[in-house]
Design brief:
19 strands, 9 helices, Elongation Factor Tu (Ef-tu), domain 3, alpha+beta, nucleotide binding, Alanyl-tRNA_Editing_Enzymes, Diaminopimelate Epimerase, Chain A, domain 1, Threonyl/alanyl tRNA synthetase SAD domain-containing protein, single chain
């Protein structure tokens, strides 16, 4: 059962959070002009959930359908839907358009006629935020978004919870990257804001030891407990030249800088007091307070063609609470299954694994002994046969996890006792006791000469639709379906066809 998680949000954003530092920069007041990305209400006041604003323009969207969108690892961003969509530009908005590694918000727009419209995502186009609004009939619904009309744009509870999760993880990433750089001179190459509740990660130029991770986590949480304030400084990009971002030999950029393709004209710098200054267009919390950071105590190494890097996973905010709650529930369930207390679960699991290994060893030993008996029976029949090429099919009902391994043991045992001068080809097959149309039965063809084995394998493919292959004197395959007498008869026909 999923556990409920309650997040206590800050009440309001401090007035000192958003600071315009360019003397000539002003927030546009003309409601027929859109406020540029960088000065939006969602960026000036990240805790604001609702805003009355004005429609600037509305067009029918030409957004590609979801079927044509390339699949990627970042699943947090809402995907386009195969439904008529309107592209709406507002004077201002509380819905964040994706950027800075942070996915777009979702939300709603309430028009003057009282209707509420779903906003599936927002994107930055030429420095302006474009809202993608679902419409049942785009041509007709277009009339509901007349330029100049007043509307209310809002984040519902689900929308704001999602935004708050994104802000928590994004702010935590800034904190984590700053501490990594300040303490260990480890630059962040990239980061991923994954779909909740999965941990997010930063990609680093090298792996880290457990001691280094612990040091970074402790330093980050010391800053959290101090409640370091966060604010944003905004200026026109033309005010000063942008710093050059260092490039590694591999071609990867490191450090902090504005993306080369950014054309918004507004430079936002997110500042964690006394810790970090980082250009970013995303939404961030006004304080580190209550944003405890947990780092998964290991790194995941990545190898590419010309470089090696590592991922460091982390959790914070509501996502951390969800992770702890879920982990505790799983631990409690495991303890109940193992009939022990939670602290004893690791030891109890170790005992279960050891017992399982010993049981598997006993089964392997017994199967080996049984395989020798089956091989002995086949050998006795072979000795009494007068055929120039001895052929034999042995089918077994077996519910083991590795039936092919057992058939191989029979073949090996038979090979150890079969006369070298006697040509033979055998088919060993196995099916489970409970079968359906999707059940898989395994077959092993074994012989004294690879030509007989290959011939039998080819015939099994063509006559029984067995999927498989082999090399030399062994060939194995799988048959899908219910193994009955008909299948036994087909195998007998195959062996007869192979015989000279």
């Amino acid at each position: 059962m999923a556990a409920a998680v309650v997040a206590l949000y800050p009440a309001v954003t401090p007035h000192s959070y958003h600071r315009i530092v360019s003397p000539t920069l002003r927030i546009p007041t003309d409601t027929q002009r859109p406020i540029p990305v960088g000065l939006l209400a969602c960026q000036r006041d990240p805790l604001l959930r609702e805003l009355e604003t004005t429609i600037v323009s509305c067009t029918i969207s030409q957004l590609a359908s979801s079927a044509s969108i390339k699949k990627g690892k970042k699943a947090s961003a809402p995907r386009p839907v195969d439904q008529p969509t309107l592209e709406v530009i507002l004077h201002d908005t509380v819905i964040f358009p994706e950027g800075g590694g942070q996915p777009s918000d979702t939300g709603a727009i309430k028009t003057a006629d009282g209707r509420t419209w779903t906003v599936t995502q927002a994107k930055r186009h030429g420095g302006h935020a474009v809202h993608y609004v679902l419409a049942e009939n785009a041509d007709v619904n277009l009339l509901c978004f007349t330029p100049g009309e007043k509307v209310t744009v809002a984040l519902g509870k689900v929308d704001f919870d999602r935004r708050y999760d994104h802000m928590s993880m994004h702010t935590s990433q800034h904190l984590l990257s700053a501490v990594l750089e300040n303490l260990l001179n480890i630059h962040t190459l990239s980061w991923s804001l994954t779909t909740a509740p999965a941990p997010c990660y930063v990609e680093l130029a090298r792996s880290m030891t457990a001691e280094e991770i612990s040091t970074v986590e402790n330093e980050a949480n010391k800053l959290v407990f101090e409640g370091r304030k966060i604010h944003v400084e905004v200026q026109e990009m033309d005010d000063q030249p942008q710093p050059v971002v260092p490039i590694l030999e591999s071609g990867r950029a490191v450090g902090k800088g504005v993306p080369t393709d950014y054309t918004g004209g507004i430079l936002r710098t997110v500042i964690i007091d006394g810790v970090d200054r980082n250009p970013c267009c995303g939404t961030h919390l006004p304080t580190l307070h209550n944003l405890q950071l947990f780092i998964i105590p290991q790194t995941e190494a990545l190898s590419r063609s010309n470089t090696t890097s590592a991922r460091l996973y982390f959790l914070a905010g509501p996502r951390l609470i969800t992770y702890i709650t879920s982990t505790h529930s799983q631990l409690t369930a495991a303890a109940a299954t193992l009939s022990c207390g939670a602290p004893q679960v690791p030891d109890r699991i170790g005992q279960v694994v050891d017992e399982r290994k010993r049981a598997e060893k006993r089964v392997d030993d017994l199967e080996f002994e049984l395989a020798k008996h089956v091989a002995g029976d086949v050998l006795q029949e072979m000795k009494s046969s007068k055929a120039a090429l001895y052929t034999k099919h042995v089918h077994r009902t077996d519910d083991s996890v590795n039936p092919l391994g057992y058939l191989s043991a029979i073949a090996t045992a038979f090979a150890n006792v079969a006369p070298a001068e006697r040509p033979f080809v055998t088919v060993f097959s196995s099916s489970s006791s409970s079968q359906t149309s999707t059940s898989a039965s395994v077959l092993l063809v074994f012989g004294s000469d690879d030509k007989y084995v290959k011939a039998a394998g080819d015939l099994l493919k063509s006559r029984l639709n067995v999927k498989g292959g082999g090399k030399g004197t062994r060939w194995s395959g799988k048959y899908t379906g219910v193994w009955r007498g008909r299948e036994d008869a087909v195998v007998s026909e195959v062996l007869q066809a192979v015989s000279p």
